[in-house]
Specification:
- The protein has 13 helices and 13 strands.
- The chain is an alpha/beta fold and 421 residues long.
- The radius of gyration is 22 Å and the shape is globular.
Length: 421
């Protein structure tokens, strides 16, 4: 592994170096959990204070017409720019789970596709819960859950064969939450279309981490959260993308007043809004939605292509260092080696993974607190967030992992996980 002076030179040449100062950083702590919750942009504090003190505090109800009614669409237009879609194809609000339920219900009700639901073993468990609930609601005999030889990557030929044999509605995570496996999106969309099927893509671990143009990739429907690499804050609202061609044939099963054609007429009959607006439901959560704007602004300013280049470079550096320094002491790499098949987190495993995580989070006199992300039964995920992760941070991380294991510092911590982290 390169020495510290070489690493520091890489940081000095980093075109994204200036963005690190745009975030709040706790003292003596390195943060590698950006794939579960991104750091706080300093601008978010200022923006939220303005809304609380002036818009809510001073202007009260007047702020709906002055600011809040237009807020979701303004942010949606920025996500459209990031994801290469048209205005009017993305809406902001609700959680990822609610958005997935809405769109899968709409597809099942549309009769555009066979009522077959398919996912795979790499998908996020919540997505599977939503699918299972819809199976019961629509009395679908069974869900197809595609299985692969390992949990690191999807076997694309197995997946394609499943789509061919069970055409219908497929739900996949664009980047796998465990290993960061990045699916060949355009290839699978074309394959699905060939068999009159559609893939609903969950972008939660992809947006802000990989460069994806939904139009070029021929994505028809996508959704995702905004609190990971997009730095939107805890529980930040999700986004939903629906291609213009599909919108007239899909209807929101949660017919709330903000999804009405003219909500402020207070008509007793529900008339769905045109286009993507019909997927709005209840009153927008203004504070939560406002909190995500600083994050999307930073990503657009930095440029997703630059972010992806740095992400690939940093994760390659981490993986090479892991091969040299960590595999010999009992670690295994659980992420794809090929950067084209990998998102922006690197997953390692060890027989004492949970104890190692606790040692990292506790810190010591010789190393700072380091916040990773543990996923049972033995995965330790490290989110590479190029807007604030430096090469020196990764260098310190590798050396700390080596120290914890070689000095058996992890033995000071309980081997059974008790709390949610």
């Amino acid at each position: 592994m390169m020495d510290l002076s070489q690493i520091q030179q890489k940081d000095e040449k980093d075109p994204l170096l200036k963005f690190k100062t745009r975030f709040f950083h706790p003292e003596n702590e390195l943060y590698f959990d950006g794939n579960s919750l991104g750091k706080l942009p300093l601008k978010s504090k200022k923006m939220l204070n303005e809304i609380i003190q002036n818009q809510w505090g001073e202007r009260l109800i007047r702020s709906w017409n002055e600011n809040w009614l237009f807020l979701p669409k303004r942010i949606a237009s920025k996500y459209a720019q990031l994801l290469g879609t048209e205005n009017g194809e993305i809406c902001i609000g609700e959680s990822t789970s609610v958005r997935l339920y809405q769109i899968l219900y709409a597809l099942l009700s549309s009769n555009l596709f066979h009522k077959n639901l398919t996912t795979d073993i790499l998908n996020f468990p919540t997505d599977l819960y939503i699918i299972e609930g819809l199976k019961k609601a629509f009395q679908i005999p069974q869900i197809t859950v595609v299985k692969y030889p390992n949990e690191i990557e999807a076997d694309i030929e197995i997946l394609k064969n499943s789509i061919k044999e069970n055409p219908g509605i497929i739900c996949l995570s664009m980047v796998s939450y465990k290993s960061a496996f990045f699916y060949p999106v355009q290839l699978l969309n074309r394959w699905a279309a060939k068999y009159n099927s559609i893939i609903v893509w969950d972008l939660s671990h992809a947006v802000g981490a990989v460069a994806i143009n939904l139009k070029v990739a021929e994505v028809k429907i996508a959704l995702g959260c905004t609190y990971k690499y997009m730095n939107g804050g805890p529980g930040a609202p999700a986004f939903l993308f629906v291609n213009n061609d599909l919108q007239p044939n899909l209807f929101n099963p949660i017919q709330g007043w903000f999804g009405h054609h003219r909500p402020f007429d207070f008509n007793m009959n529900f008339i769905p809004a045109d286009g993507i607006d019909r997927f709005a439901s209840g009153t927008p959560s203004v504070l939560s939605i406002a909190g995500i704007e600083a994050g999307i602004d930073l990503v657009l300013e930095a440029g997703i292509e630059e972010i992806r280049l740095k992400s690939t470079s940093q994760s390659d550096f981490f993986l090479k260092a892991a091969e040299e320094e960590l595999i010999p002491i009992g670690f295994s790499i659980e992420s794809p080696i090929d950067p084209n098949q990998r998102g922006s987190h690197v997953t390692l495993s060890h027989s004492a993974s949970w104890q190692i995580c606790q040692a990292l989070m506790a810190g010591s006199k010789s190393y700072p607190k380091i916040i990773p992300d543990y996923r049972p039964p033995y995965f330790i995920r490290f989110g590479i967030t190029p807007l604030y992760t430096s090469y020196e941070d990764i260098w310190i991380l590798v050396n700390t992992l080596k120290t914890i294991v070689t000095k058996k510092a992890y033995l000071n911590f309980c081997s059974k996980k008790k709390n949610v982290t």
